Amino acid sequence: xxxxxxxEIAHSWFQQQGWKPFPFQxxxxxxFLQGKHxxxxxxxxxxxTYALWFPIVLTYIKNHPEYKxxxxxxxxAIWITPLxxxxxxIKQSAERIVHDLELPMTVGIRTGDxxxxxxxxxxxxxxDLLITTPESLQLxxxxxxxxxxxxxxxxxxxxxxxxxxxxKRGVQMELGLSRLKTVCKDLRIWGISATIGNLEQAxxxxxxxxxxxxxxxxxxRANLKKRITVKSIxxxxxxxxxxxxxxxxxxxxxxxxxxxxxxxxxxxxxxxxQCEIWFQKILEKYPEFAGEMAMHHGSVNKETRIWVEQAIxxxxxxxxxxxxxxxxxxxxAPVETVIQIGGPKGVxxxxxxxxxxxxxxxxxxxxxxxxxxxxxxxEASALQxxxxxxxxxxxxxxxxxxxxxxxxxxxxxxxxxxYPEEIFPEIQQTFCYQGITEQEWQWLLNFLxxxxxxxxxxxxxxxxxxxxxxxxKVNHKGIAMRHRxxxxxxxxxxxxxxxxxxxxxxxxxxxxxxxxxxxxDVFVFAGRNLEFIRIRSMKVQVxxxxxRSNKVPAWAGGRLSFSSQMSALLRLELYKAATKTATSxxxxxxxxxxxxxxxxxxxxxxxxxxxxxxxxxxxYHHIFYPFEGRAVHEAMSSLLSYRIGLLSPITCSLAxxxxxxxxxxxxxxxxxxxxxxxxxxxxxMLEDLQKSLNSNEMARRKFRDxxxxxxxxxxxxxxxxxxxxxxxxxSQLLFDVFRDYEPNNLLFQQAFTETFEHQLEEGRLRLAxxxxxxxxxxxxxxEKPTPFSFPLITDRLREKLSNEKLADRIKRMxxxxxx
Length: 819
What we know:
Layout: H1 3-16, H2 23-33, E1 37-41, H3 48-63, E2 77-80, H4 87-100, E3 107-110, H5 116-124, E4 129-132, H6 134-141, H7 146-150, E5 155-158, H8 161-164, H9 168-183, E6 188-193, H10 199-207, H11 212-215, E7 217-221, E8 228-232, H12 252-261, E9 265-268, H13 272-285, E10 293-296, H14 302-313, E11 319-322, E12 337-341, H15 347-354, E13 365-370, H16 376-389, H17 402-414, H18 420-428, H19 438-450, E14 465-466, E15 472-473, H20 477-485, E16 495-500, E17 505-510, H21 511-514, E18 522-525, E19 528-536, E20 539-544, H22 564-578, H23 585-589, H24 591-600, E21 608-616, E22 619-624, H25 630-647, E23 652-656, E24 661-665, H26 671-676, H27 685-692, H28 695-709, H29 724-741, H30 746-759, H31 762-774, E25 776-781, H32 790-798, H33 803-818
Parallel strand pairs: 1-6, 1-7, 2-4, 2-5, 3-4, 5-6, 8-13, 9-11, 9-12, 10-11, 12-13, 16-20, 21-25
Antiparallel strand pairs: 14-15, 16-17, 18-19, 19-20, 21-22, 22-24, 23-24
Helix pairs in contact: 1-3, 2-3, 3-4, 6-9, 16-22, 17-19, 17-20, 17-28, 25-27, 25-31, 28-29, 28-30
């Protein structure tokens, strides 16, 4: 059958649905049927799923003209999705096509949620079209005879590639693809990505730099301009001294009419704890929403999540309070309105969430922005600009993740074993390991067989045996089993499952939070007030309680930092306020704050860098405003305090937020003298940073993850688990051994590289210091705290005071300041 006849099949199917294929869908079909690889750049809700399921099915028809009478079972295509919540959706699209075209193909899902029975069935016969996650793909590579399973596979689609790029799951994917390129004789690789700044690089990472696949590939852009409207909810009365405290809850009454007027509303919060609090508060104040409102975040159990997703599709829910667990393309057609609570910290994340509303091709998206404190309105104003210019961040890929490579090689050794000379060229063709040296490769092979130089007298680190013909293989059943349990690169804080005493499962929370609870404590989780009874074999036992509580589990995602793009946009908005050229309603609403700031200090202009100093009963405050985001400020504050300490010995405590950082000390710092001493220079930056930070401590925390991913530390069997304390202590031990006896250990060195490049964003710090070096330093010696400094000072109080006391104290402070 020629391509024209195949196209006819697709066109008539689209006509039956009353649709018309988009140019980008046709372009993807053509490229795919010509045997090309590619990256499709299309927004959520644009019909991207049909752009790739169709050519996969059409290729099957083309290659098997007698498919109606002679259908050979087995895997034909794999669709990788980073989120389990998406798999149902993708399966339905595929089944719809298969059913309507009367094809004998089966569609199956394999994720962490798949039942044992279903997995066993897949072991005997794989579905024709398989939907799975990066982790489950690695598990398939860890099963004996995987080459026969995959040999007839003609396509791999990696959905939401922008989400995987710049994470270790993305690296895991690169390695999986490098193997499948060899195993499958006629494979096409396609990625689907939302808009990011570096799409060309995203395609290079997916297909491998300089590979045949990359040369024979295309980048298809959907170019569908989504109309997005951002509406800020501006409070009627605003404090002149803003503080991040009440999480925007005083605007609760303003969102009720919005919820009432639309069919379904998604309320996005940045953290799971914020999600819990909002859900509680809305129901307390508006009990009539009971039964029409639900909550959705990653720690809520699977049944509830699926029920919520289904209910949104049936339009039986009025509102859902959620976190990023609903960010990606879960195709909820009928969502009408999206409310973002608090600054989303990044442009791409915001556009993705906005795209959830009007989630149909050509529909208009409306997103409401609700500030949790006044200064966040500047973020809202910056997002307006971003939406107009559709300016989006880059996602930077990882390089040289030796922990992921160690895990991958063990995976291959567990299944059929591998010959290093066959695998090494495959690995060199990936983006992450394009620069790997022969020496590093040899080190890794030794690590698998002997467990690294300093550990070679301990048997438990020797996993892989070298057979007489040179094949690397794991022959020990226990090692193989433990390895399969631990495949994956997401090492959160160890999480514990929460159960009622009688056994009902509610969800999971991080051990870090539970370790602070005493029996009888009440906390809010999954929208309920629960009383903590005890921990028994990695399970948290609870009972319902009618006591009110302000304890909410905090998860690690709680402290998002600005992306570099967001910081740049934010500074531009501030400069508008400084030069009084502000036009947006958000900035106009903040006019009284800017006026007070000018009166007490100044609003910095583009060529200025502001430093404020004042004294309170807590000591001498020195406040710097780079507006670069939390991660950069964390590094910069410790770097500068170290440099200042070299000039005159001083002890100070640091606090930072997204807008600036504070040094609080018991005596004043002479800002002028310090600045004249090259305070902001980029010379010796790395050495100073290493000395200033407890970089050993930070690297230790990173090393825990590296030790788990590379398999040096075992996290325990499911249900049993290993206590985080033990995990921490065994990885601590290894860290100290390597530090003292084997400092050139690749995994030990990787912990430091990751600390500087990822956690402290060393590259951005350098750029920020260069920018400040060119600006004029404006040092304002103030009488009292200023509106800009207020959120920083009150954040510091938060650590000492309970919420009620904090609110009272801030009221008193504001009264004094307003005099």
